[in-house]
Amino acid sequence: MTTDTVHVALHDGLADWEVGHLLAELRTGRFTGRPFDIVTVGLSDRPVTTMGGVRIVPDAVVDDLDPSVSALLVLPGGEIWDAGGGDEFVEAARRFLDAGVPVAAICGATAGLARGGLLDTRPHTSAAAEYLAATGYAGGGHYREERAVIGGDVVTAGPQSPVQFSRAVLERLGLASPEVRQAYEAVFHGGDGSAFGVLMGAHA
């Protein structure tokens, strides 16, 4: 079933900037031609405050999350992961992957997936190999020194690579042409204004 809904995990201390590029592109579809509804998912229905001080009320609760009505689960980084939390989101990711629905994790969320055994057999990346090794996971042999990695249904990136994370997720979802995705990274990571015309002409 094709769905136009993307679910995003919310937790106190969420690293806003890590998913900002991705959510903007998914919601607007400005360069892909396919907008998505963004549904936020919390551990409860209580508001959370992001690392940047933005207060958000979740649309849904993680225990009620159904992969069959989602195109993607996005797991931002933040304080929760390095404190050993986020297990509920990891279990949601497991349900998504079992259902064949992609999961995109950045920064600390990759450590959560590692602790849950979800990176043991998939190519992946993170902030650093040593960061994930500290979780005691068994997937070190699949670590890649890259800005973002598509490992089947799992997309991973480190905190320094929000644009590459966005580009990789767009690729995994089959959104935009390779030329448009390359131009997207050139503009928003490389500051290459000459590539902007490619983005503007994506749906001309």
Structure in words:
It contains eight helices and nine strands. The longest helix has 13 residues. The chain is an alpha/beta fold. The radius of gyration is 16 Å and the shape is globular. The chain has one domain: 3-Layer(aba) Sandwich (Rossmann fold). β8 and β9 form a beta hairpin. The strands form two sheets. A seven-stranded mixed β-sheet has the order 5-2-1-6-7-9-8, sandwiched between helices. Strands 3-4 form a two-stranded antiparallel ribbon.
Brief summary of the model shown:
34% of the residues lie in helices and 16% in strands.
Strand segment tally: 9
Superfamily (CATH H level) name = Class I glutamine amidotransferase (GATase) domain
Q: What does the largest sheet look like? A: 7 strands, mixed
Oligomeric status of the shown chains?
A: single chain
Shape: globular
Strand order of the largest sheet: 5-2-1-6-7-9-8
Question: Within the CATH hierarchy, at the fold level, what is the topology?
Answer: Rossmann fold
Quickly give the structural class: alpha/beta
At CATH level 2, the architecture is 3-Layer(aba) Sandwich
End-to-end Cα distance, whole Å, is: 29 Å
Task: Report the β-strand fraction as a percent range.
Answer: 15-25%
CATH class: Alpha Beta
Order of helices and strands: EHEEEEEHHEHHEEHHH
